[in-house]
Description:
19% strand, binds adenosine-5'-diphosphate, single chain, five-stranded parallel β-sheet, alpha/beta
Amino acid sequence: xxxxxxxxxxxxxxxxxxxxxxxxxxxxxxxxxxxxxxxxxxxxxxxxxxxxxxxxxxxxxxxxxxxxxxxxxxxxxxxxxxxxxxxxxxxxxxxxxxxxxxxxxxxxxxxxxxxxxxxxxxxxxxxxxxxxxxxxxxxxxxxxxxxxxxxxxxxxxxxxxxxxxxxxxxxxxxxxxxxxxxxxxxxxxxxxxxxxxxxxxxxxxxxxxxxxxxxxxxxxxxxxxxxxxxxxxxxxxxxxxxxxxxxxxxxxxxxxxxxxxxxxxxxxxxxxxxxxxxxxxxxxxxxxxxxxxxxxxxxxxxxxxxxxxxxxxxxxxxxxxxxxxxxxxxxxxxxxxxxxxxxxxxxxxxx
Length: 351
Ligand code: ADP
C-alpha cells in the first residue's frame, strides 16, 4: 500500500512538473498570429526554455527508472572529487563561497563508475550552492576519507540546512522545495550510490547547514572477491596488452613468462582461469595442460589456449588441441570478453 501510494505521488509529481512547463508554453503560444516578429522571438526563447525543462524531467525519470548499471573500475576518489570541484569553481567564485578541502593521504582506490560518481558529486555541490544562494559568508567543505572498509566523500555547506520535517523526504523522487527544482537530483544520486553497494546519507539541523556523505566500496576489498587469472605468455608486449584487457574485465591478473614459472604457480595456487600460450620457450602449452589434467583436472577445465602467429602449422596444432576455448592473437576486448564467458558457461555446464 505504501509503495502504491508512493507511485501515485511520483506520478502526481511528474504530472505537476510537466503541466507547469506546458502551461508556460501555452502561455507563450497563445495569440501567436497577432504578435510581431520580435515578440514571437522572445516567446520562442521561453518556449525553448520550458521544452528543455521537460526534456530534463524526462531524462531524470529515465535515469531513475532504468539507471545504467555502474561500470566499475578502480578509482582515485580524491582525484575525481578534485576534478569535479574544478567544474563548479566558477560558481563558487561568483557566489563568493569559500572552499575548504581535506583529502586523507594514501587512500586506497574506490570500486566505482567514475562518470556516475561525478554525477552524484555535481548534484551535491550544486545543491549546496543553491542552498546558500547569495548569502554572505557561504562555505563548502569537501572531505574524502576512509570509513572502516569504505571510502566516503563528505560534502558540507554553510547554508540554511534542512528542517526536520523535510529531512526524511529529500531522497524522494520529485520532492523539491525549489521553484524550478525537478526533485530528481538526490533520488537519482541515491539510486547510483546503492547500485554501487554504497550509500548516500544526510545530516542537517535547520540553521546549521547540511552534510551529505557518499559511501563507496573500497577497491581492495572487492579485489579479494575478484576472479584470479594466470596469464602465461612469453612475449612481454602481448602479455601486457592481454593483461590490460583482462583487468578491464574485472579480473586480477598474475603473469608467467615461461612454462617453468607457470608450473610452479599452478602447483602453488588455485586459479579461476588460466590463459596459456600454446608456444612457450621451454615447454608447450598443451604439455602443461596434459600435466594439469593428471594432477588438477578441475583446473585443467579452466584453461584457455592462446594461439597466434603461423597459421599453417597452427591449423594442424588446432586439431591436436584439447577441447578448451581458444583465443587467437592479436585479440580484441570483445574476444577476451567472449572467451571468458565461454569458459564460465562450460564450467557451469560441467557443474
Ligand atoms: P532539486 O535540487 O531539484 O530540488 P534534489 O533531489 O537534488 O532536487 O533535492 C531535493 C531537496 O532537498 C531540495 O529541493 C532541497 O529542499 C533539499 N536539499 C538538498 N540539498 C540541500 C542542501 N545542501 N541544503 C538544504 N537543502 C537541501
